[in-house]
Give the backbone structure.
Amino acid sequence: MADEHSSTAEPTAGESAMLRSILETVPDAMVVIDRHGTILQFSKAAERLFGWRADDVCGHNVRMLMPSPYREQHDEYLDRYIATGERRIIGIGRVVVGQRRNGSTFPMELSVGEARDGEQQLFTGFVRDLTERQQARARMQELQDELLHVARLRSMGQMAAALAHELNQPLTAVGNYVAAALRLLDSPVPDPEHMRQALRLAADQTQRSGEIIRRLRSYVARGDTDRWPRPLGIIVEEAAALALVGLGDRGVTVKFDLAPDLPLVVVDRIQVQQVLLNLIRNAVEAMENAAVRELSVSTALWDCMVAVSIADTGTGIPPSIEAQLFQPFVTTKADGMGIGLSVCRAIVEAHGGRLWCEPNPDGGTVFRFTLPTEAAERAGADAKLAVGRDRAEEQSGAEIATFPGEDPADRMGT
Amino acid sequence: MPDRRGRRVGVIDDDAAVRDSLRFLLEAAGHNVQAFHSTDQFLAAADILSLDCLLLDQHMPGATGLELLRRLSQAGAHLPVALMTGSPSPQLTQQALALGAALVLEKPLLENALFAFVEGASR
């Protein structure tokens, strides 16, 4: 039932040559169809991608390049657009599935533009093969899952090691006191008071052990989070490694400035790694078109909290965007790897810390967040929130800062 | 016949309960104890020549047990040292022995091993 008319209106010789040149050289697969879906032009790259020669496909309906269910629906889509002018793909771009000559299918990104050739309405489709990107993404996801699994196991191992280490001291003391009590029992000169002292001191140490266990248990017992004291340095290094996988070829230099001897932070490792992943990837993307591409990750002790800073040398964040940055569902890209800044802020605030951004004096932006140490946990929520408050509030103050002559009310509406 | 004369024992451990309980036990057995909370304090205050042996914790903030061992061996001090640790490993034992320690004692301490060292060690 395919319409089998042959090609198009005759172009001039010059246009012909130019068009041919474009079709031969355009790096993307390009398919031009008319309002009926008949293929009019088929670029060299399209020939390579689909496995058909232009002669094979020109004059046939474009649905031959699609598997079900796209194939059956294409006519409908075309008709609907022509009737309603409603843009579902034109100018928008979609990920769909294409089918090669040999029957194999592949994911593809399709962008469609609309053109006119005199009376004739034309549609130009640009096709990008996403197979490799999809495979890379699947590999990345597997790698991420595996790394997180290993991180969890290491986490459990670390908790066990921390528990063993902390309990060993009072246990050693109890052992010594009990050994002493037994020796005193064997003494030719009875000294019950001395013995009582030994046992009392042993009992104190048992008490101390109980408190250690209670404290660790309370960290673990908080809902579904696994929050307990651990060293931040390793968490940062692992997250950075994850984030930078596959980004090595973007020419970004990475600087780590991790403070030595930081006290342990009381955190859910997985959650903090998600935050770090998100911020680091954002930073790298912000620098995509920058002349200088330097990412710095640093940690420092601020009072009872540990502050983590991620700085980029990108274009910076205009004040009008800053206000909306942390709101849910606001994203300038959808790459499926991030969890969104609003979730990052929620995670940090659930730990009792703050997350905010500041301009980078070297150009670009610095994102900072605070995490509690054990001392902070003992000091309480107010103490935790007090750290970094001034700097975080400076940022929200910037939401309504104005340029000379500007009415703040105009800015608030954006 | 085991030698039960009172020995002069040095103890270095950052944990107060470990120090105090070791002192209690050793004194109950008739020995004399000088206890220190760090390598620095030991080097500043101890009269090394007045000690028969030393019980030295490995995992301390600041200088570790191994570091003190290194300094003692460099200074040519012939003081019998037992390194105490809650995280034993073959590497740690190897390093300790190479630096001149008499042995490594695992925490929690085994009474027999402890007294064998204290009462058996000689300069």
The first strand of chain A starts at residue 29 and ends at 34. Chain A is about 50% helix and 20% strand.
